[in-house]
Design a protein that fits this description.
Layout (H helix, E strand, L loop, with lengths): L6 E5 L9 H10 L4 E7 L1 H4 L6 H19 L4 E6 L2 H12 L3 E5 L5 H17 L2 E5 L14 H10 L14 H19 L22 H9 L5 H13 L4 H14 L4 H11 L5 H12 L12 H8 L4 H6 L8 H4 L7 H7 L14 H17 L1 H14 L13 H9 L22
Parallel strand pairs: 1-2, 1-4, 2-3, 4-5
Helix pairs in contact: 4-5, 7-12, 10-12, 11-12
The structure holds flavin-adenine dinucleotide.
């Protein structure tokens, strides 16, 4: 008796074995038959403006960890390079698989179109395609009302049965999981927010051709504002940054430099090793004031530098030009008198840039532009629709108090440690300070 056709698991942004609904479903549906997993390096995904070689490097690292873990489960990992439909069709004719299992993906316009093509191919090729959720993001959500309950239902459901179950994390992790899905749900529900303002009433506000000089200075950490430059250079070197410093970079680009969020978002996407389209584009718009439903968060780069890095450890680490600048001037080096500049070996305008914009002036202009627009009846009316489509349904005190399920989660969770996302790494004082 011939063995049943194998089941194929298509891996994308889920390179793990723990809590993997698609893997569990494939093993179950195979009923003892063969299961193999495939990962595709897709040229169109690698060519996306957001993509960076560091993302491919990170995937390769994950795959080299994953292959032996899958092998221990008796599952072979296949990697191929090519367009998805072509690669899956080739594998289908090689292996005869008739069931393709994958996770739903809330991705960029490119992966959205690719997924539609694969579904069409599967229908035509007689391949059953099973797409399963792996987060709290809900496909084809009719309305945001009740979304929290759906999310809690998912979070409460047992983890997918794969050999080793992992324990639940503390409160902070649950909150972050909620944010994770809350932001991804926005792109899931409205893919156009990858390209267009959530609040269309702000169209035209920053759409004039991008100021290439300002963009380049921001992208390379040459704006003359030390914390902005240190954060960008640390990101270029490491591929990671805390939440607050990501927000600072976007706030500075959007309000002080008045740059549109699309080109700046593309640059950050390329740098963020953890680039997640659903979170990224929603956050880019939120931090740029184009959602209509969030307060304008405009960070003062100098005040932030003084608060977050009072001893200048982070600044000196990432801005070698300022290493000998006395602390009194470190957060505003442009205020250094010429003799101090000479002694510190840092001439503003040549060794380190002078501020490319006057933040205080830019701030006033930005606030004035937004104030007029956000008061317009069209913007007010449209903001209501945006809130209906994308607003979180939590009251001021947070849904948790009222919801028995959340209360259970909270009781089980350990108390939250201080939040590193609101701090700067390495900000401890250092005896080598000049
Ligand atoms: C402009 C901007 C762009 C961002 N782009 C991304 C992105 O592309 N990918 C990404 O994962 N996060 C993004 N974030 C959210 C957040 O900054 C990062 O998730 C966090 O800094 C990652 O740190 P961590 O790995 O220590 O995660 P932890 O702090 O341990 O959080 C764990 C997970 O929770 C989720 N999470 C945490 N904070 C947030 C948040 N504020 N909003 C939504 N989800 C959150 C993420 O999935 C994260 O991986 C962005 C934030 C801003 C302001």
């Amino acid at each position: 008796m011939s063995s049943p056709p194998p089941v194929c698991v298509w891996l994308k942004r889920d390179l793990r074995v723990a809590d993997h609904p698609a893997l569990a479903a494939a093993v179950e549906r195979a009923r003892g038959g063969a299961v193999f997993a495939v990962f595709l390096y897709e040229p169109e995904v690698l060519a996306q403006p957001e993509w960076d070689a560091s993302h491919t490097g990170f995937q390769a690292e994950c795959l080299s960890d994953l292959a032996p873990a899958l092998a221990r489960l008796g599952i072979r990992l296949v990697t191929r390079r090519g367009e998805a439909v072509a690669m899956l069709e080739a594998l289908r004719s090689e292996t005869g698989f008739r069931l393709l299992v994958a996770h739903e993906e809330t991705g960029t316009g490119v992966t959205y179109a690719r997924d539609r093509r694969v579904r069409r191919w599967a229908r035509e090729a007689g391949v059953e395609m099973l797409e399963l959720p792996q987060t709290g993001v809900v496909r084809r959500l009719a309305s945001r009302n009740g979304w929290n309950r759906l999310w809690e239902g998912r979070m409460e459901s047992p983890q997918a049965a794969v050999p080793r179950a992992t324990g639940r994390g503390g409160l902070a992790v649950i909150e972050r999981l909620h944010w994770h899905c809350h932001f991804m749900q926005k792109l899931e529900d409205e893919p156009a927010i990858e390209f267009h303002n959530m609040l269309r009433a702000v169209d035209g506000l920053r759409e004039e051709p991008v100021d290439a000089g300002r963009l380049a200075a921001w992208q390379t950490g040459q704006t003359g504002y030390p914390l902005v430059d240190a954060c960008m250079r640390s990101l270029l070197a490491t591929g990671w940054l805390t939440f607050r410093m990501r927000a600072l970079l976007v706030s500075f680009a959007s309000y002080s430099l008045w740059l549109h969020w699309r080109p700046t978002g593309l640059h950050l996407a390329q740098q963020f090793l953890d680039f997640e389209p659903g979170i990224h584009w929603s956050q880019m718009q939120m931090q740029s004031g184009t959602t209509g439903i969030n307060t304008l968060r405009i960070y003062n780069p100098t005040k932030q530098a003084m608060e977050q890095d009072p001893h200048g450890v982070f600044l000196r680490r990432w801005l070698p030009e300022l290493v000998a600048v006395p602390k009194a001037y470190l957060h505003q080096p442009w205020t250094m008198p010429a003799d101090v500049q000479a002694r510190a070996g840092c001439r503003i305008g040549s060794d380190y840039p002078a501020p490319i914009v006057d933040h205080a002036v830019a701030l006033r202009e930005a606030k004035a532009r937004f104030a007029t627009l956000r008061r317009s009846p069209a913007a007010v009316a449209e903001a209501r629709d945006v809130a209906l489509r994308h607003g979180s349904r939590r009251d001021r005190r947070g849904a948790m108090q009222q919801d028995p399920v959340r209360r259970q989660l909270r009781k089980r969770a350990r108390p939250a440690p201080p939040d590193p996302q609101r701090l700067l790494p390495f900000a401890e004082p250092d005896s080598r300070e000049p």
